[in-house]
Amino acid sequence: MLWEVDIYPGEGRANPAAEEVTNEAADLGLAEDLDVVAGRGFLLQGNLQREQVERIATELLADGIVEQTIIGRVGDANLQQPPHVCERLIYVLPKPGVTD
Q: What is the pTM assigned to this prediction?
């Protein structure tokens, strides 16, 4: 089974990844007033139950004090509703073998 764990900054928390995107877009002359919310995600594959995925997410992948997680099977509708209001949801995946 393939699970997805999406991690977003908590309400009112800084979002350095989003700030980097908006600064780069401004530097390139693409847009001066982008409204971006950035998160990160993980795909977990294996014979895992939801409770196990939740434990992995809360104990290994995310900091529950400053971050929010959304967990679901790949394709679940709840993964399409990030905790922050946004017009579009875009997933950017690194090239295989790239870790950062």
A: 0.81
